[in-house]
């Protein structure tokens, strides 16, 4: 009886539904977009390539030993001498591996894509905080962007931009942007209502309330978003090595193919140390925002 | 012209607010609307405030007083009715004109201070002037004056986190004073403070008021506070239950609700010699100690104890108005409304 029911369900209820060609639709769209907006993609390609190449050249312009000192100095300025010393040691170890050049390439990709991601994320986050409608639309889109497996981005992006650094950067921007938007929105929505009311009561315009009250008070949360964006960017940039993104990602995907434990470990170590550098420095910067400093005084 | 005038003012929250207003006008009670998920916060307010007056709106939480004060500067739009500030109807203003009105005419002090945590005291005080578009030197100079006015000199460069609650609220007050507006809205401004600090702030407000003569709308849930600082008091529970001076409320409560409120008030600090005195009669009063008519009852204890005769109450021209005896003082302290003395005594016999 049960078997009969099951057969019936499979035959008449489920089976008649055809497989939906979601994937085909996407492919058709991407192919169409490639031809229709070719000029736009070319411009983006050239622009990103230009940014990346110049930044990477800049970071590699000085010998690694001097760059190590510069990184240590940046960490010192951001947080204090302890972090300066720690980062100095970490970057010295990186310079000791055979992959300093690749590390600087990876860092360039992270900085370019994180900068663009945050430049897109902050206005979007502001719009989402100010408008319920924008927030309602943005939320599922951001969920989609963040949960779609990272590898899947690479396929259409390679189709649009061919292999190289740029598809890696594009995929990274898409993948790393969501926490920037979310935390900007969260930070703005968390601002004390009474303080916003005070702005209104003294006759400030909405733009002024945003600039003088909401954004300064939300800045620590926005900085936490920046931190998240950068960390996600680093993880994605490594995956982008699969499509010829260069940098440490290429070393890692190459050593995966050859089962080269030594090269893989060297590159992995460099990634970890780079991650620590980026994380601690951005955290140090967020502790330096005026509101975070004032909060520290209260304790 | 009145500084602030409101006319059949209503604010109802929830779906079908406009319909609810017509129901309220038709006499449907507030509770019945609550059951339908509609909250009537402000019901049929009609009053006006003269320049220089301290007008206290007193009510329990949920009585619509915060909503009311936010309607006066347009932060909340009324469901129906008119609000006039210096003769200008708020509903007729565009958002831009409304912001201009707030910058020039109305400032506000908040219950939880609403200071910017990353700005120093003087920068916080200068906020209103910054919005007005004053240049930095001028606004900081005027902010410093306001800081001095509220007695915070020496703390100009501290951050709010380094101040106590009372000091923070002084910053809030200074910010409102620095904006130099005629009207000052104070939303439970002292409610978050300790009792001692609260009294200190009340005294300071009265002292400042004697110099500055602003028009002040003061919201509170504390009747003692209301009676202490208010020239007139409106007791609200959605609608205005009674509007009058502190003495009116104590001596002539409009209904049970008001009487219940006023039962716990320290009457000796509100009632004046004039309110408790009895007629002089025709006897010789030349030997009596005199007191001014506006002296509070609690300041009469000492003179009446050191004098064998009653006290003679006199007006500004030293003309006699009446006499105060020990008996009239004790009588004034009982919250019973004016009934015959004999009856009152009988009622108080143990059953």
UniProtKB/TrEMBL annotation, chain A:
GO terms for molecular function: amine transmembrane transporter activity; carnitine transmembrane transporter activity. GO terms for biological process: choline transport; glycine betaine transport. It is a multi-pass membrane protein. Its main location: membrane. It comes from the Bacteria. Coiled coil: none annotated. It is found in: Cell membrane; Membrane. Residues 103-282 form the ABC transmembrane type-1 domain. InterPro entries: MetI-like, MetI-like_sf. Belongs to the binding-protein-dependent transport system permease family. Keywords: Cell membrane, Membrane, Transmembrane, Transmembrane helix, Transport. Signal peptide: none annotated. GO terms for cellular component: ATP-binding cassette (ABC) transporter complex. The chain crosses the membrane at residues 58-76, 83-100, 106-129, 150-177, 229-252, 259-278. This is Glycine betaine/proline transport system permease protein.
TrEMBL record, chain B:
Keywords: ATP-binding, CBS domain, Nucleotide-binding, Transport. InterPro entries: AAA+_ATPase (IPR003593), ABC_osmolyte_uptake_ATP-bind (IPR051921), ABC_transporter-like_ATP-bd (IPR003439), ABC_transporter-like_CS (IPR017871), CBS_dom_sf (IPR046342), Gly-betaine_transp_ATP-bd (IPR005892), P-loop_NTPase (IPR027417). It comes from the Bacteria. Pfam families: ABC_tran (PF00005). Residues 4-262 form the ABC transporter domain. Residues 331-351 are annotated as: Disordered. Belongs to the ABC transporter superfamily. This is Glycine betaine/proline transport system ATP-binding protein. It comes from Glycomyces harbinensis.
């Amino acid at each position: 009886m049960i078997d009969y029911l099951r057969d019936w369900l499979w035959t008449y209820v489920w089976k008649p539904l055809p497989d939906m060609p979601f994937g085909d639709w996407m492919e058709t769209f991407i192919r169409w977009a490639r031809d229709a907006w070719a000029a736009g993609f070319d411009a983006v390609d050239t622009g990103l390539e230009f940014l990346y190449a110049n930044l990477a050249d800049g970071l590699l312009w000085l010998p690694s030993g001097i760059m190590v000192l510069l990184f240590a100095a940046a960490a010192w300025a951001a947080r204090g001498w302890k972090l300066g010393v720690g980062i100095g040691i970490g970057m010295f170890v990186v310079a000791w591996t055979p992959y300093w050049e690749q590390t600087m390439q990876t860092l360039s990709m992270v900085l370019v894509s994180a900068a663009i991601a945050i430049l897109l994320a902050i206005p979007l986050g502001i719009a989402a905080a100010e408008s319920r409608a924008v927030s309602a639309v943005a939320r599922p889109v951001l969920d989609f962007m963040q949960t779609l497996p990272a590898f899947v981005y690479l396929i259409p992006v390679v189709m649009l931009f061919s292999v190289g650094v740029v598809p890696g950067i594009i995929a990274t921007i898409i993948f790393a942007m969501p926490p920037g938007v979310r935390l900007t929105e969260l930070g703005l929505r968390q601002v004390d209502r009474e303080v916003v009311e005070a702005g209104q009561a003294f006759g400030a315009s909405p733009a002024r309330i945003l600039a003088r009250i909401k954004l300064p008070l939300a800045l620590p949360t926005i900085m936490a978003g920046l931190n998240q964006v950068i960390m996600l960017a680093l993880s994605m940039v490594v995956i982008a090595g699969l499509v010829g993104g260069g940098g440490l990602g290429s070393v890692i995907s190459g050593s995966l193919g050859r089962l080269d434990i030594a090269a893989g470990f060297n590159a992995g170590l460099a990634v970890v140390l780079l991650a620590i550098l980026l994380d601690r420095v951005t955290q140090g910067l967020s502790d330096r925002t005026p509101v975070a400093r004032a909060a520290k005084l209260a304790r | 012209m009145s500084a602030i005038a409101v006319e059949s003012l209503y604010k109802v929250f929830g779906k079908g607010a406009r319909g609810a207003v017509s129901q309220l006008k038709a006499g449907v009670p507030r509770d019945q609307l609550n059951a339908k998920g509609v909250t009537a916060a402000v019901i049929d307010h009609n009053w006006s405030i003269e320049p220089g007056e301290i007008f206290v709106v007193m009510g329990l939480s949920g009585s619509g007083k915060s909503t009311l004060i936010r309607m006066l500067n347009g932060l909340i739009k009324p469901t129906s009715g008119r609000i006039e500030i210096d003769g200008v109807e708020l509903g007729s203003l565009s958002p831009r004109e409304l912001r201009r009105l707030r910058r020039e005419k109305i400032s506000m002090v908040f219950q939880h201070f609403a200071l910017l945590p990353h700005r120093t005291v003087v920068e916080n005080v200068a906020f209103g002037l910054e919005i007005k578009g004053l240049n930095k030197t001028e606004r900081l100079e005027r902010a410093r004056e306001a800081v001095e006015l509220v007695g915070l000199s020496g703390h100009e460069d501290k951050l709010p986190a380094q101040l106590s609650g009372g000091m923070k609220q002084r910053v809030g007050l200074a910010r409102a004073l620095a904006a130099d507006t005629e009207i000052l809205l104070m939303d439970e401004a002292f409610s978050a403070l300790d009792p001692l600090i609260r009294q200190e702030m009340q005294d300071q407000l009265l002292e400042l008021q004697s110099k500055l003569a602003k028009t002040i709308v003061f919201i509170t849930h504390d009747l003692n506070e209301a009676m202490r600082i208010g020239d007139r008091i409106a007791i609200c529970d959605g609608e205005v239950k009674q509007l009058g001076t502190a003495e009116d409320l104590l001596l002539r409560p409009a209904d049970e609700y008001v009487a219940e409120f006023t039962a716990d008030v320290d009457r000796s600090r509100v009632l004046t010699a004039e309110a408790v005195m009895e007629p002089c009669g025709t006897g010789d009063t030349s030997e009596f100690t005199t007191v001014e008519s506006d002296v509070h009852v609690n300041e009469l204890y000492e003179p009446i104890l050191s004098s064998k005769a009653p006290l003679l109450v006199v007006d500004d021209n030293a003309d006699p108005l009446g006499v105060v005896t020990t008996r009239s003082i004790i009588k004034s302290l009982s919250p019973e409304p004016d009934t015959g003395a004999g009856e009152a005594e009988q009622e108080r016999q143990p059953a």
